[in-house]
């Protein structure tokens, strides 16, 4: 103990600063680039960017976004609003509204979000409209159903997410065979219905050959999403009994 005290006294005499770190202190955090997306038009360029907050242990604890604009000489860009995820609540980029920007300008960083999402910034340009998205949200299950057989369980799910200012839709099949049993996924489909017409994408899970799954397994198919009256996922599988089954889930 005397040696430790003497060592601390020597450091203090040398002008060293001693900082006590309490046990259980929070890990240091750093803001890293998560995603950035830029557009260039006649009156100038604009970039939306999202940063992620990362601890020194590698954990992501938050996200924030902002818009930057760089008008050309004689050009003007007026930022207006932003939202998190394409269908989110619109918020002003400037308190009380932004004035037209004729020189380089950056908005304040948004309040920190605790979950990933798509940041979409909006504005106006001369004879044009600015809408630029960056980052992406987590997949959300919007429809799903499971069925159980003597061989195990099969689930079909439909997922959606926002990617920049584009929507994605995904169909998923999950198989959970019982011990000593198998289930053979055959295909999985995702799509939507508009005015009574169905449009879809299918992934053949038997190309080049079918596989009998003896442990938990899932397969998906994904594509961009537009407006629709009904969204669905569809899948087919085979059972040890020789039966070929299929199931469709949809919303709303």
Shape: elongated
> What structural category do the secondary elements indicate?
mainly beta
Percentage of residues in helical conformation: under 10%
Q: How many DSSP H or I helices?
A: 1
Strand arrangement across the biggest beta sheet: 1-2-3-6
How large a portion of the residues is in β-strands, by DSSP E? over 45%
Number of strands: 16
End-to-end separation: 71 Å
Major sheet summary line: 4 strands, antiparallel
Identify low-pLDDT runs.
1-25
Q: Average pLDDT value?
A: 90
Whole-number radius of gyration? 27 Å
Question: Could you spell the SSE succession in H and E letters?
Answer: HEEEEEEEEEEEEEEEE
Describe what you observe in this structure:
This protein is mainly β. 5% of the residues lie in helices and 56% in strands. It has 1 helix and 16 strands. The strands form 4 sheets. Strands 1-2-3-6 form a 4-stranded antiparallel beta sheet, with no helix packed on it. Strands 5-4-7-8 form a 4-stranded antiparallel beta sheet, with no helix packed on it. Strands 9-10-11-14 form a 4-stranded antiparallel beta sheet, with no helix packed on it. Strand 2 (44-55) and strand 3 form a beta hairpin. The chain is elongated, with a radius of gyration of 27 Å.
